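Hi P.,

Sorry for the delay on this. The queue was packed all week, but I finally got your sequence through. Input first:
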Amino acid sequence: MRLPGSEQSKHVDHTARNLLPELSDWPHFDYSAEHLREYPDFINAAKSLIDDAIQEGYGEKVALIFENSQWTYAQLQEKASQIAHVLVDDYGLVAGNRVLLRSPNNPMLAACWLGVLKAGGICVASMALLRAKELTFIGNHVKIDFALCDIELAEELELALPQISSIRRVGYFTALGERSHTQANLDAELKGKSPVFPAVKTAADDIALVTFTSGTTGNPKAVAQFHRNIIATCDSVPLIYTVEPDDVVCAASSMAFTYGLSSLLLYPLYYRATAIIVNKPTSEAILSAVEKYRANSLFAVPTLYNAMLDELDKYDVSSLTKCSSAGENIKLTLWEAWQEKTGVQIVNGIGATEFMSHFLSDSLDVDKPTSCGKAIPGYKVAILDDAGNELPPGNRGMIAVKGPTGCLYLNDPDRQRIYVRNGWNITNDVFELDEDGYFWFVDRADDLIVSSGYNISPQEVEIAVMEHPDVREAAVVGVPDTQRGNVAMACVVLQPGCEPSETLAKSIQSFVKERVAPYKYPRILEFYSDLPRTGTGKLQRFKIKQEYLEKLR
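Then the structure:
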């Protein structure tokens, strides 16, 4: 496999390539599957996603729906080309420069993403909720050259700019690029630019995207993906969770994260479907969009599915035929409640930023509810013991993955060696493989609770807690105990109308004792109004532990 920055590369600026880990620390990238073998040496993902769609005759088809506006494939291509012209002609971008994208989900963010890739740049995604300190870390970690930012999010970026010495130019835009705000300079700079910009003929293994992990502890990690990896993701995951040209897709996650990017932009464009963009994806906004535009495919996280349950009776979601879940493992109680109310079975899967999207997924038929299914075509997934040996079905161990995508941390060699071992990507998740070849999530290895010598899985206890009729959500963490070393603490969000009380706490604890081994029950139970989560919906257990320890001081 050629290295980015080799004789094939069209990048002029090799800064990002030079931040890649040593080749000996790379995972084993596997393109041996039949559907992955024939990639050319040169790929520009933006050309595959939008330019080729125009060539195939999809120019007049609606690509994006946003509030009361619709952009066709041709309009999206024109806007992306104009952005590429501004970057190259006015800002001085050369292939390989890094461009920070900062925006909530909207059509201009999609156009900026495509425009940067068309120009040969590298997209560096950032979540809208990030503050100046976090933006400063991102900017300096990968040496950002330019930033394209929604004008509504300018304040924190402006605070960060003096601390990012590498940044040269900032373009501010509005959601539709129509300069409804006087300070949206990018909107103005687009006027008069040619709607045609031939995509730079980047190498298949030139870096196209840097995404920072949402992270539940410490600084986020910068993950690099090649142009080829973006296309390989489109060619793999939708073989299981299908995307068709007639689909109307609604997705809730931010395009700053690979699950949101894949489900809202990459898959719909690659398969010439239509995507609904919801600026502020509350449960009501998502359900309203599904009803209004008759979406048939929904991508969301368990937290949002749970929030939508109470609102379902207010909306007509009969158009839905398939639903995907990721971010964290879905609980059976939620899966059953969603199916009962909608008639649709949620397809559970698991992925990671390091892989662009899923590497495991159940089928659309949902053979085993709440399992993570089987390996996505093109990926090999195994359960390893502590010595790195593959384990047979019936055993629990660390899950390991090889495939067309994998972990390449920029400027972070120590973390690279932790995540990648002997060519395997080791995600630090504990799984069990059953006799039928289905993978079942057990827990994060670093979340396991050791109490009086027993290993307790928070996930297992959470499932038992959530089966109580008065519990809406639950998180279980280990906290220090003088006698047992650690004990399980359950943090509980109650169903609407239920009031916290000592009696109810004891009732939940007794309920759990009847369903799991007694040593596993939560000896401490706290009531919460909301649980702390990352932007991707993952529980931030470390915050719960911090808050509890602070109360003890």
